[in-house]
Specification:
The chain is α/β, with parallel strands linked by helices. Helices cover 38% and strands 30% of the residues. The protein has helices spanning 3-19, 23-38, 107-122, 155-160, 169-182, 187-209; strands at residues 46-55, 58-68, 71-78, 82-85, 92-97, 100-105, 129-135, 139-141, 149-151, 220-225, 228-233, 242-244. The strands form three sheets. Strands 1-2-3-7-9 form a five-stranded mixed beta sheet, with helices on both faces. Strands 6-5-4-8 form a four-stranded mixed beta sheet. A three-stranded antiparallel beta sheet has the order 10-11-12, with no helix packed on it. It is globular, with a radius of gyration of 20 Å. The protein starts with a helix and ends with a strand.
């Protein structure tokens, strides 16, 4: 191998490492990897990547939807490295990598909202939906959850283990037809969704700073937990919102 070719390979690797440090690009990369895994499913599994659903004037983006005879899989992809901590009811989970901590919105709650939006759009029983959160290979899952939270290499096996048919061929085709209506590669729509997410996140941060629960509007109070103090909604257990101090 010539020196020029070696330098070119090194440059490509360095650029790839730098690019993948950008959160938005990392997210796209993770979705592409999961999309590749999903393409290995049999032909009677219909795959939709990057689906936008509008509910109540707001648009929500779903990473992957898989329609099968055994249910509709709603897949949220997370490309985080390190130890992942969190439970079903926490507003934010924590990524800990070499002692450096980073908070991110609870993917179980996020995926639950996506599933409900798709449920309302498709107008089929909620019990026919199978929400699943997928972390890429760099994550070590230490979360306490009853939800389907798995590593990416388990995804295909997880989907294939569901063998109880709930849809007829005609029902599957009707669901696929409805999804194709909203499956549009529209960059303008994507940008509007990003703006909406940022606006919602900013509003939530402002409410928390004012000690107001962004979920129900109740007052946030300081509580003592296993890992120290945190903010919890005064309306607990009706509202289980929590936030770190």
């Amino acid at each position: 191998m010539s020196n020029e070719m070696m330098r070119a390979i090194v440059l490509v690797v360095v650029l790839l490492i730098l690019v993948l440090r950008i959160p938005y690009v990392k997210g796209i990369f993770g979705e592409k990897v999961v999309g590749f895994i999903l393409r290995m499913l049999p032909d009677d599994y219909y795959i939709f990547n990057d689906v936008y659903v509008e509910v109540g004037g707001r648009t929500t983006q779903i990473d992957h939807v898989v329609v099968s005879p055994f249910g509709v899989f709603v897949i949220e992809t997370k490309n985080y490295r390190g130890w992942i901590f969190g439970n079903d009811d926490q507003q934010y989970w924590t990524k800990n990598m070499y002692g450096r901590k980073y908070e991110f919105y609870n993917p179980v709650l996020q995926n639950r909202a996506h599933t409900k939006a798709l449920h309302r759009y498709l107008n089929i029983s909620y019990s026919f939906f199978i929400p699943v959160v997928v972390f890429l290979s760099g994550a070590t899952l230490k979360c306490d959850t009853t939800a389907n939270v798995i590593k990416m290499w388990s995804l295909r096996r997880f989907i294939r283990k569901h063998t109880h048919a709930v849809f007829t061929d005609e029902e599957i085709q009707e669901i696929v037809k409805k999804l194709r209506v909203i499956f549009v590669e529209d960059k303008a729509q994507e940008q509007e969704h990003i703006k909406s997410v940022k606006k919602t996140a900013k509003r939530s941060e402002e409410l928390i700073a004012s000690r107001i629960c962004p979920r129900c509007g109740g007052k946030l109070v300081v509580r003592e937990g296993r890992y120290g103090e945190f903010l919890g909604c005064r309306n607990y257990p009706k509202c289980k919102f929590t936030a770190n101090l």
